[in-house]
Design brief:
277 residues, alpha/beta, TIM Barrel, 8-stranded parallel beta barrel, two-stranded antiparallel ribbon, binds fe (iii) ion, binds zinc ion
Length: 277
């Protein structure tokens, strides 16, 4: 099965997002668990969830990849900001139990001058405070581009965070193709080498989802500007190699490309075609 969909910006509820994705030709999707800039989350309507679960079963959806607000910084210098990260993540994880067994991905954070070692320790501290044995959601660390003081732009840093987290069975990784490329991993000329390095540092069994994006910038640029599939510096052929790679076959692929529904529908159809060839 090929699981592909896009990050939907719809805020009309689960059933609406499910229908939108069926219309786009997708069978998974990503969405912000609340306003991406933070703030209180809308109450979830159990009837809406029920309807969504029907749509998901009917259309053989794969696992969803919920996205935490990108303003959340688990390694902020200020305690009140880290407290906000803990509260938001704990609340999101509670709410996600209404749609059990999916993924919740987040940006590890920016160390804002404290140094990556301190940043890594603080991120692990937040995860140790919010992960519970009871949760069915797996929390995913997203690989970052290294913009500013972002933590998680190298596989070593992702590994260090994982090493300091107690409930390792609740933790995984989401690989963003734009971010790793911008971070300096050459997935165009040496995808096998990059995945071998991922396996050596992190373990491929911990890779749970892929954000499939082209990049507006070059290898190692640390910019994080997504491009449409085939319209950036990574290019179509390299991204087709990603979706066809034997080690990645079963993962959900999420497009975070600058598109509307029409654009995502085209990208999904084209990638479905290319995956099979
Ligand atoms: Fe992200
Ligand atoms: Fe991403
Ligand atoms: Zn990005």
């Amino acid at each position: 099965m090929f699981y592909i969909g896009n990050h939907t910006t719809s805020s009309k509820g689960y059933a609406a997002m499910g229908r939108q994705m069926v219309d786009n030709g997708g069978n998974t999707f990503a969405f912000f668990t609340r306003n991406p800039r933070g703030g209180r989350a809308k109450a979830i309507d159990p009837k809406d969830v029920e309807k969504f679960l029907e749509i998901a079963t009917e259309n053989q959806f794969g696992k969803l990849v919920a996205h935490a607000p990108y303003t959340l910084n688990a390694c902020a210098a200020k305690e009140n900001l880290r407290e906000f990260a803990r509260e938001t993540m704990a609340d999101d994880l509670n709410r996600l139990e209404l749609t059990p067994g999916n993924y919740y991905n987040f940006h590890p954070g920016s160390h804002v001058g404290q140094g990556s070692e301190t940043g890594i320790a603080k991120i692990a501290e937040v995860l140790n405070a919010v992960l519970t044995d009871a949760q069915s959601t797996i929390v995913l660390l997203e690989t970052m581009s290294g913009k500013g003081s972002e933590v998680g732009a190298t596989f070593e840093e992702i590994r260090s965070i994982m090493d300091q987290v107690e409930k390792k069975d609740k933790l995984g990784v989401c690989l963003d193709t734009c971010h790793v490329w911008d971070g300096g991993y050459d997935i165009v000329n040496d995808l096998d080498g990059v995945l071998a390095e991922f396996d050596r540092m992190i373990g491929l069994e911990n890779l749970k989802a892929v954000h499939l994006n082209d990049s507006m910038n070059g290898l190692g640029s640390h910019k994080d500007r997504h491009a449409k599939i085939g319209e950036g510096e990574i290019g179509l052929e390299a991204l087709v190699n990603v979706i066809r790679h034997p080690a990645l076959q079963s993962l959900p692929f999420i497009l975070e490309t600058p598109n509307d529904d029409e654009g995502w529908t085209k990208e999904i159809a084209m990638l479905r075609q290319r995956r099979q060839e």
